[in-house]
Structures are given as C-alpha cells and as structure tokens.
Amino acid sequence: MIVQMKRGATREEVDHVVERAKSLGFGVQLNIGTETTVIAILGSDTGKTPSDIFAVLPGVEAVSRIMKPYKLASREFHPQSSLIKINGCEVGGNRLVVMAGPCAVESERQLFDTAATVKKAGGMVLRGGAFKPRTSPFSFQGLEEKGLELLGEARKKYGLLVVTEVLQIEQIEKVAKYADILQVGARNMQNFALLKELSRTDHPILLKRGLAATVTEWLTAADYLLAEGNQRVILCERGIRTFEDSIRFTMDISSIPVIKRFSHLPVLVDPSHATGHAAFVPAVAKAAIAAGADGLLIEIHPKPETALVDGLQSLSFPAFEQLMADLAPIAKAVGRQM
Ligand code: PEP
Ligand code: MN
Asked: DSSP of 124-150, one letter per residue?
C-alpha cells in the first residue's frame, strides 16, 4: 500500500502514519520528496488491511493499493525518476551513460587499450568481467582477482568508473574495492540471498534482466535490492529467451517505455548479449536510445577475433567509435546528450 501525504503535511502527521503501520506489524519506507512525502507500507498482509485505516489519518492525501508485487521500485512510491550518482557520474540524468569494455578481462594490454578507447570516445564506465558466469564449467571463468586488480589499475590510469559482475556474497567487498558499480548478472537476477546482502550495502548495483524474467519479476528483484536501504539501483535490459533463434536473445525494446512508466529506476540496454552478433549491435543500440534508455552497456575488444569470450558480439574499436558518433543525433532527437 502507498500512502501519499498532503503537500505541507507535518513531520508529526508523517510519524503518525508510520507508527500506525508499525503497530499493525508492517514495515515502512519513506520517500521524502520536495513536494510531498510518500510512505510505502510493506508486508505480505497489506491486502487484508482496509486502506481507510490510513486514509482517515490527518495529513493523508490518498492511499493506493499496489496490485503489483513490487513497491519500492514503483513510480507510485517514488514519482520522480531516480538519478543515481556514482563518483561524479549520474545515471538517469540528461546525459546518456555508456559503459563499454570486453566481456572478460584477459590481459593488461587488452584492458588498458580498451580503457583508452572508451575514454576517448566519451564513455564514462569501463566494463570487464573478472568472475565470469559461464554455461559450461570448462569455459574460461575469468582472471578472477587478477582481473579485479587490472580493472582497479585501469580505473586509476584512465579516470573511468568500473562495472564488473559479482557472483557470490563472499565476493561483494572484494569486488567493491575495485569497482564503482557491481553488476548482478542475468543468471543471478533471482539469487535472493545475493540481492539481500547487496541491499545492506550502499554500492551502486546494475541489475540485469533474467533471461526468462518478466518485467514484473525484474522489478520485484529490484525491490530486494531496495528493501534494506540501498538506493542506487540501475536496471539493464539484455534480451530475453523467445522462440526466435536467428539471434542470441530477443531484445525486448518495449521493456524500456514499460519500465519508464512503472518504475523510477534508470534503465540501460546491453545490445551485445541481446543480439550476440556485432553486426546487429549498432542498430539495437540506436533503437534503445530512441526508445528512452538512459545508456548502454556494450562489449568491445581490441581484436574481437581473438577474444576468449563473446568475440562474435564484441565491437572492434573503429565500430565502437562510429557507433558513439552515430548515437549523438539520435540522443539529441529524444532530448538527451551523449
Ligand atoms: C555480462 O554482461 O558480462 C554478462 C554475463 O551478461 P548477462 O548476465 O546479461 O548474460
Ligand atoms: Mn559477454
């Protein structure tokens, strides 16, 4: 249930609603906006409680029931779009955020050359997997700690932020030492133990959509990240499984306006995993920006033909630079900047 307070409602009136909710055994989260305060009443039994219990309280403007299972990620709870501030970079603002880099960190040379290219082309964040979730246990699993150290060095040397995946609870603090944004991969979108632990931190999180997850399931997973206080959550659409087999996954372009309507969280698009082929990445990247995405997560590699992972979908440096140039007029057409 969402309780929207009147403009100018007093602190005492807000506290009164909070106390009433707590006395009924519910949890609460406050969104204190510049205009009004919105209170989310949390608990599995809110459906059994008449909304009038809150509607009659002084200072309450309206009470609405959220029929969707997610609350904290919803626009009802947080009407303004969230701007996620991460060490000088803003995700969800006017400027689009491009995160680019190799699927996996392979060597210092590979990573540093990539970082230099990302920086020069106007990207703000370097991506690169140190711990790789692979379908087969016999595939390259990433350089692990060594990969993290290289990411940390590239971050310092090129003045970029770093995003990399965290696979397990035990790795959180180690990964956070080297990365500015922790990625939760598609295969871990419903790893609730990991999400809960990340919620207790204040590390920015990039939550990928599960390969077979609905938008509702994705936003409910985002609620796990928000439930214990972490406010810096960014969504990332990366394509879903459908019957279509001409590309690796199917890019659900409509999830972008859907997310924008139902959630306040920023959403990026990963055209690389969505398509699985470098030839299709630019078109999908452009479509994503035109559809209202807040940025992109793109795989690039100095020599895609030698990449240890995902070479087929990695853009070469010239192709990435061309894409960045081509995106500028599209961004402008939808009122954004590169
Ligand atoms: C990745 O971005 O490195 C990755 C593994 O993607 P996903 O979790 O979307 O498959
Ligand atoms: Mn990859």
From this structure: -EEE-BSS---SSTTS----THHHHHH
Q: Could you tell me the two tokens for 271?
A: 């055209």
Ligand approaching nearest to the C-alpha of 272: 2
Compute the distance from residue 217 Cα to the ligand 2 centre, in Å.
23
The whole model's pTM is what?
Answer: 0.93
Domain residue limits, the chain:
2-64, 84-333
How many whole angstroms from 76 Cα to the centroid of ligand 1?
30
CATH topology for 2-64 is Alpha-Beta Plaits (3.30.70)
Domain spanning 84-333: which superfamily? Answer: Aldolase class I (3.20.20.70)
Residue type, 309: V
The verdict on the CB of residue 219 being under 6 Å from ligand 1 is no
Q: What is the pLDDT along the chain (338 residues), one digit of tens a residue?
A: 999 999 999 999 999 999 999 999 999 999 998 889 999 999 877 778 889 999 999 999 999 987 788 999 999 999 999 999 999 999 999 999 999 999 999 999 999 999 999 999 999 999 999 999 888 999 999 999 999 999 999 999 999 999 999 999 999 999 999 999 999 999 999 999 999 999 999 999 999 999 999 999 999 999 999 999 999 999 999 999 999 999 999 999 999 999 999 999 999 999 999 999 999 999 999 999 999 999 999 999 999 999 999 999 999 999 999 999 999 999 999 999 99
* Cα atoms found within 13 Å of the Cα of residue 244, Cβ hemisphere only: 14
Q: Does the beta carbon of 103 sit less than 6 angstroms from any atom of ligand 1?
A: yes
Question: Residue 246 has which token pair?
Answer: 């001409």
Ligand 1: which of 270, 275, 310 to mutate, judged by most atoms within 8 Å of the beta carbon? 270
